[in-house]
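Anyone opening a protein record will find just a pair of labelled lines. With that in mind, the following record should read easily:
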Amino acid sequence: MAGGWAKDGAEQEQIDHTVEDALQRVRSRIPAGSSLTTCEACNAAIPEGRRQALPGVRLCVTCQEAQDARQQSSGPYNRRASRDSQLR
């Protein structure tokens, strides 16, 4: 049940948007295409095993871990919803 000025179902709508945003972030990180032999960030060699395991890989393990940490620090919160639909 929504409270205040929020319409009924606002909480579920916000949860649905948060889940969709998270899925979109995950899907956007899936590599595609052919793998690189060297990391596009630091030019280190990408091992053959990594290239076979992750088709389309573009970063070495070290650079990928750093990128993942930066992306994870952005947080899982949905900032798209209107002010009236924020959970209180």
